[in-house]
Amino acid sequence: MRNRLILSALTAAFLSVPPVAQAEVGNTPETLAIAGILDNDTFDRAGLSIGHRAQYWMPVFDTLLYTAPDGKTMPNLATEWRFNGDGTELTLKLREGVKFSDGTPFNAEAVKANLEYLRDGVGQNTWMAGAIKNVEIVGPAELKLHLKEPDPGMLFNLATVGGAMASPATLGKADSKMLPIGSGPYIYDTARSVTGRQYVYKRNPDYWNAGAFPFETMTITPINDLSARMNALKSGQVDAAAGEGQVVTEAEASKLTVSRLPVDWLGLFLSDRDGKMVKALSDVRVRRALNMAFDEKAILKFVARGYGEVTDQPFVPPSEAFDPSLDGTYQYDPKAARALLAEAGYPNGFSVTMPDIGTLAPYTPIITQQLKDIGVTVSWVKVPPNVTVAELLSGKYPMFLFRLGSQSPWADFNKFAFANSPWNTSKAKDEKLEALLKTAQYTPPGKEQNAAMQAANRYMVENAFFAPWFRIDSIYISNAQVKVQMQAQNIVPWPRNYAPAK
Amino acid sequence: MIRYLLKRVASGIALLCLVSTVTFMMVFGATGNVARNILGENATADQVTALNSRLGLDRPLMVQFGDWVSHAVRGDLGPSWTMSESVASALASRLPVTLSMVTIAVALMALLAAMLGIAAAVRGGWADRAIQIVSVAGFAMPNFWLGLLLVLTFSVELGLLPATGYVSFSASPSAWAASLVLPVTSLVLSGIASASQQIRGAVIDALKQDYVRTLRARGVSPRSVLYRHALRNAMPAALTVLSVQFIALLGGAAVIERVFAIPGMGSLTVSAALIGDVPVLMGVVVTLIIVVVLVNILVDFLNAWANPKVRMS
Question: Shortest CB distance from B155 goes to which of A196, A231, A386?
């Protein structure tokens, strides 16, 4: 009797674990079930991200513009847009009759509140509204953005985090981090979502463009581990998920669909161009020699399994700064590289310290060997994964290998071309390049501006700011239930890029 | 007995204070990059400085520690630096996941290990050797590898059980059970080996004792000797083994949680450690120590209940 009582008490205690979490929503034909690599970090409008995490907020927060899968800017909540002659004013006409899911009307006031909240916040993408000096409300459905200076990336920004529209009533409210209220195609289902476990979105019955989002429900399950994602895909728990090169064969054997598109580029950042740490790097001949030292085709084929394209520039198509004629500027030629080093006064090469980054470890011995072939000796410093970006940006390393995502060309230039750009880690200033960038910035959008940006790109390639190896394909895997279109300039597709297969 | 248990509680609290302090000092050595990790690669140095200030990281270490302790003793573990929820909320949703997985695994392990261990000890001969071989084989199989095999067989090939994820009991008891079958099986199969061998040894030792010989000489049935007397004496050793297994599984669940994409304490710890979310890490450490102390106290209690000699001592 006593034993039974104790057993009952223990069972009751175990089962009385508080019902913190609610449900898991299964994958039905009306559901788009996708897996995310990263967990969502916030729904606070000022803290939103692009890349993997865009999939969490895009179902709820509609954007002023949107980028089509091919990268073209399209109307959305803003139906028309127009820059003035010098690119310092952007007029937007807004869609009328749209409401946020809490009943707040979407209008010029709401856009102004959102843009100012982003610009004045501390999120990682505040820069997307950083050029906005002030927002002038012209009418309920029209407003004018006055810019401090022309921002050629503004339209891209307004199609992503910069243009995400949350109900103004929620801006700055503590619970907005977990409870997003927008006017998008879906409404976040708090009752069926569990942070970190599964995010559930139900159709917004009032959405103005329901046809573009054919699924009734959307779920996102964060699954960080590649094998676990593949198992979830193969067993039908999820319809689509990001993959990697090493699982393409397995995915194809399992009759899954593999989609590919180059979004990132991989290569060496030759950041110490002023020669503060390694004097040799200040000589353009040395930097060119480094561009000729690597057998990129072989590295791509045997290490990256061929999922990419060899390149010499830090932009990927369809970026307006991309110039196909620049690929092939530097051919693999260690003999010519040694001759260039000798010409620059380094017949015996030089020594350099580089960071050994865990995620890029397969490339470490290749760099050591191929640089040794031209006389350059590398010593490696191990960098823990939780400090990788901080270490690289600290400016400690004269050169390093890294994989960088490409976005709009102007965002990319801001990442690495200016003296204060974060990925110009040695803060080297190049007045000729900055003049070229200024020309691009002040040229009205269109062919001339694209040509100006390509000129700046060419300058960087010819002066060997980097030693790019190849553009890496983003790999996305889906099952037979859904069709997926890859998204230019983002590592995973936008929610509107999915449709039922039948 | 009560005095004994109070002593154990006091030593548990001392352990909690010591480990919390050491952990805080260790993890705070690496917080210089938290703001950069949170804000991402495009953030300016000014933004990083501003976030450091907002998180209070520009204050002296002891001030930060004092602040954390003063809140923690009131049950306030603060907000996470990188997630949208508070540390308490993150722990409340993850702890039941790991606890249910590990508790069921240890309960099953206890049952199976006891059956195997007793059978090996009592029967001896080929049965003992067979159980030992199976146990060693089980011990040699890493649980993540076993987990992958189980997923491929029962989820991908047969489609019987979910490959990944966790459903709470309150949402659907059947889905909850289904979500736990494979992870628990992988934990049990690889852990059962050592537990069954320990129980076997403890039972063999108990059966060699003088009192067993006396009982047998008095004509007490072998069944009664084994279950009423020898097993009670073997129980402390067995319970200790199982409590050690429980604690080991609690720490080692991270691997299984990763294989099955289960959002438990392990995955929370790994993600918090990678980005440097100190409040979450501290919350995890405090919670796990409390669980470990409680398990040890429970084991002491069960030992005392099962064996009067323990109560007397």
Answer: A231
Q: At what angle do helices A334-343 and A284-291 cross, to 10 degrees?
A: 170
Interface touch B261/A196, C-beta < 8 Å: no
* Distance separating alpha carbons of residues A10 and B133, to the nearest angstrom: 34
| B164/A223 CB distance under 8 A | yes
**Contact status, residue A144 vs residue A199, Cβ threshold 8 Å:** no
Report CB contact under 8 Å: A228, B92.
Answer: no
Gap from B177 CA to chain A (nearest CA, Å): 12
Q: How far is CA A66 from CA A387, A409, B194, in A?
A: 33, 16, 59
- Mean pLDDT, consecutive 10-residue segments, chain A of 502 residues? 49 47 79 95 92 96 96 96 92 97 97 96 87 96 96 95 97 93 97 92 96 96 94 95 93 96 95 96 97 96 93 95 96 96 95 94 95 96 84 92 91 93 92 96 92 97 97 96 94 96 85
The rounded distance, in Å, linking the Cα atoms of A333 and B94 is 55
B286 touches chain A (CB under 8 A): no
Cβ distance of B93 and A39 shorter than 8 Å: no
pLDDT (tens digit per residue) in B231-252:
777 777 778 888 888 888 887 7
In angstroms, the Cα distances linking A348 to A49, A274, A342, A366, B22 are 46, 21, 7, 20, 50
Chain A residue numbers touching B159 (CB-CB < 8 A): 235-236
- Kindly identify which residue of chain A lies nearest to residue B95, measuring between CA atoms: A17
Please tell me the predicted confidence (pLDDT) of residue B305.
75
Both structure tokens of A419: 């003296």
Give yes or no for a contact between B161 and B178, defined as CB atoms under 8 angstroms apart: yes
Spatial contact of B286 and B73, defined as CB atoms under 8 Å apart: no
Look at residue B31 in the predicted model and tell me its pLDDT: 61
Hey, are the CB atoms on B274 and A41 less than 8 Å from each other? no
Angstrom distance (rounded) from CA A53 to CA A37: 9
Do A222 and A40 meet the contact criterion of CB atoms below 8 Å apart?
yes
Using alpha carbons only, what angle is made at residue A358 by residues A357 and A364, rounded to the nearest 5 degrees?
Answer: 65
Whether residue B286 contacts residue A397, with contact meaning beta carbons closer than 8 Å, is answered with no
B63: Cα within 13 Å, side-chain hemisphere = 6
SS3 B286: helix
The answer to whether A134 contacts chain B (CB < 8 Å) is: no
Q: Is B142 at the interface with chain A, CB within 8 A? A: no
Q: Who among B43, B261, B276 is closest to A228 (CB)? A: B261
The answer to whether B84 contacts A387, with C-beta atoms less than 8 Å apart, is: no
Contacts of A197 in chain B (CB under 8 A): 93, 165-166, 263
Q: Which of B36, B42, B231 to mutate to test the interface with A (most CBs of A within 10 A)?
A: B42
Give pLDDT tens digits for B175-204.
Answer: 999 999 999 999 888 778 778 888 888 888
Rounded to an integer, what distance in angstroms lies between the CA atom of residue A105 and that of residue A94?
12
* Cα four-point dihedral sign A384, A389, A391, A396: positive
- Separation between Cα atoms, residue A183 and residue A60, nearest integer Å: 6
Would you call A415 an interface residue with chain B, using a CB distance cutoff of 8 Å?
yes
The alpha carbon of residue B182 and the mean position of all alpha carbons in its chain are separated, in whole angstroms, by 17
Cβ burial of B177 (10 Å; 0-12, 13-18, 19+) is middle
Q: What is the mean pLDDT of chain A?
A: 92
The two tokens of residue B193 are 């080996």
Cβ neighbours of A228 in B, within 8 Å: 163-164, 258-261
**Which residue in A226, A227, A229 has the most chain B C-beta atoms within 10 A of its own C-beta, making it the best mutation to test that interface?**
A227
Using one digit for the tens of pLDDT, what is the confidence trace for B39-64? 877 777 777 888 888 888 888 888 88
